[in-house]
Each structure stands twice: as C-alpha cells, then as structure tokens.
Design goal:
Length: about 180
C-alpha cells in the first residue's frame, strides 16, 4: 500500500533546485516580499531574526551582472557573465554573525530554516530557486559591492526564476540506514 503524503510532506519531497531553464517571466519585488513575509516565521532562538536581504530584481539584473563580473580575474569574466545571466533574479541572504559560538550556530540554523521555507513557498508559486554558496560569497570585493559589513556573513545567493520543467527527483538514502536507537 502506497503511503499517502500530507501536503507539507508532498511539498518537501517535490521541491527541486532549479539551476537552469528559467522563463522570461520577471521575478518581482512584490512576490519576493510576499514569500519572505511567510519564510521568516522560521524558528530562531530568542527571536533574534539574524537575517537581512538584498534583492536583485529582473529589471536590475544586467546592471548587477556587469558589476559582479568585476569581482573575478579577466580570464574568468566571460564564464561568470554567462553564469550570472542565467537566473531571472537574485536574493542575497546575509546573516549577522554573533561572536559567541552557540549563538552563531543557532543563527546559522535559523537562517537555513528560513531559506528552506523560502524555497518551499517559492516552489508553490512555480518560482524556482537554487541556493548557491560560491567562493565569491567570501570575496572582499563582492562583500563591499553588496554592502556586507564586518560581522556579517553571506549565507546564500538564491538564484531565482520561473520555470517550465522541473528536474526528476533523485533518490534519498532509506532512513533505516541513518537511524540508530540509543542503547546503553
């Protein structure tokens, strides 16, 4: 007998990272704000809400791409121009870094939960998202250009765009292979 999935379980299992194949439909500020207004209900210790966002909408993307390619050596710029030109828009997620390790870990977990919420909510609207953590997230030139301050971390470049076709699901390891019960 096939397991009947709840709507939440179904959304979690069906969501895919959309890396290519974006349509020309623009990603608007209004849609991103609407999704974020629900995504930020992620669990976060002490309601620190350790995130902030920089949105690059479709109509500003070309200008952004021309700035972004300058972060790279001349020999890589054309490759990076092609890379940054594929998504319709970007959402850069920045975390305030707490100097205390426990709080830093809690905040990173909270931001990660918020990003997963964002991806699920975007999926519901057929807005594809892929979470990128590339080396330029740490590049001082990129950080300066994006207004990322000392004591802040770029957690994600979320590449976004509407899509026609989702990739096929990839199998997951059966939970029995990763689950233990404590025994003394």
């Amino acid at each position: 007998m096939e397991k009947v999935l709840s709507p939440i379980a179904k959304a979690i299992r069906e969501r895919r990272s959309i890396k290519t194949g974006y349509t020309a439909k623009p990603v608007t500020e209004e849609v991103v704000k609407e999704i974020l207004s629900d995504a930020v209900w992620a669990p976060n210790h002490g309601l620190r809400e350790p995130w902030r966002f920089l949105f690059v909408p479709t109509e500003r993307k070309e200008e952004f791409v021309e700035e972004a390619v300058q972060w790279f050596p001349a020999g890589m710029q054309e490759n990076r121009r092609n890379y940054f030109s594929q998504p319709s828009a970007f959402l850069i997620v920045v975390m305030k870094e707490d100097p205390r390790q426990k709080q830093w870990d809690e905040d990173y977990g909270a931001v990660s939960c918020m990003i997963q919420n964002f991806q699920l909510l975007a999926w519901e609207q057929k807005l594809g998202v892929v979470w990128k953590t590339n080396p330029h997230n740490y590049d001082p030139k990129a950080r300066e250009a994006l207004g990322v301050q000392s004591g802040e971390k770029i957690v994600a470049f979320l590449h976004m765009g509407y899509f026609e076709e989702a990739p096929a699901p990839r199998p997951r390891t059966p939970i029995e292979e990763k689950f233990l019960v404590y025994k003394k």
